[in-house]
Amino acid sequence: MAERLSDVEDRIDSVRQLSSVISAMRGIAAVRSREANARLAGIREYAETIGTAIAQALALYQAGGADPAVDSGEAGRLLILALCAEQGFVGAFNTHVLDEVQALADSFGAERADLLMVGSRGVAAARERGLEPVDCLAMAGHADQLSALANRLGDRLFARLQAGTISRVVIVSARPDEAHAAPYSVVRQTLIPFDFDRFPPANLAQPPLIHLPAAVLLARLTDEYVFAELCEALTLSYASENDARMRAMIAARENVARKLDELTATSRRLRQEQITEELIELSGAVRD
User: Fold this and answer.
1) Phi/psi of residue 237, each to 5°?
2) How many angstroms separate the CA atoms of 26 and 32, rounded?
3) Which residues contact 104 (CB under 8 A, 6 or more apart)?
4) Is the CB of residue 221 less than 8 Å from the CB of residue 61?
5) Cα angle, residue 230 at apex, residues 155 and 51 outer, rounded to 5°
6) CA of 170: how far to CAs of 82, 190, 220, 284, in Å?
7) At what angle do helices 214-287 and 146-163 cross, to 10 degrees?
8) Which end of the chain, C or N, has fewer beta carbons within 10 A?
9) 100 Cβ neighbours under 8 A, 6+ residues apart
């Protein structure tokens, strides 16, 4: 009986240590989510500034009697940028993203779709489904690394565009659910073909002074806006990943608390049984 009691007490110590680890992981995830969300305002302000410049550049471009040529992208290959989790304990986060990736590839034609993935856990989950990415990158481990990751992802994307191997680019990623009906929602966002209709040409009373041809200026601003969109998508995905991890840790902590209650009750029962047996032995010895 004493040995069984000691085993239970050892398990109680282990469960308490596990509870401390879970609480620490939850705290880290909460901090990372807040850090990511704090960067969104700056990213969106930057994108808005570039968008204003695009509207002005469009006015200059069209003043020369031209419109930006936009390929519909339906005839070429599709590149899907799937943003998944780098680390574990995120519940069904990767599954939800990959479900949307699979649906998009099937609707476009799997034989004409390539997959570029961010997030090591997502890559492993994709391969289990038979989805082999043409390229993959690790997701940022800290919010400060997101802009550098966006640069690397942009370099890979533009290299494929310049090589002429793709004509359409869609991001599939998670973002926090603004309605709070769920921890996050998975969305599709088309990067290429670039949607110039979002930026009505500005009515310029006084055209800005420029040192580049309007076509070159517009192309560079478009690239910069795509970079801003990549930054925003990565930041939202990173925040969603950590929100998912935080919720998973809350659920784990509740399970651990229940297990600890069960073990504590078992420990008390065994201790009481041990005391009872000792009293019986003692009373027997007194009678003898």
Assistant:
1) -65, -40
2) 10
3) 78, 80, 113, 170, 172, 188
4) no
5) 105
6) 9, 4, 20, 81
7) 130
8) C
9) 172, 186, 188
The strand ranges marked E within the chain are: 78-83, 113-118, 135-137, 168-176, 184-192
> Residue 225 is which amino acid?
Y
Structure tokens at 231: 């930054």
- pLDDT averages per 10-residue partition of the chain, 288 residues: 72 88 92 95 96 88 60 76 94 95 93 95 94 95 95 94 90 86 88 90 71 84 96 97 93 89 86 81 69
What's the CA dihedral at 167, 173, 178, 183 to 10 degrees? 160
Topology (CATH level 3) of domain 29-204+211-246: Pyruvate Kinase; Chain: A, domain 1 (3.40.1380)
Alpha helices in 64-119 (DSSP H): 93-108
- Sorted by where each begins, the domain ranges of the chain are 29-204+211-246
Q: Which of 142, 102, 109, 175 is nearest to 117 (CA)?
A: 102
3-class DSSP state for residue 281?
helix
Q: Is 54 exposed, middle or buried (0-12, 13-18, 19+ CB in 10 A)?
A: buried
Quick one: residue 211, left, alpha or beta (phi over 0 = left, psi -120 to 50 = alpha)?
Answer: alpha
The single residue listed with the structure tokens 């500034």 is 49
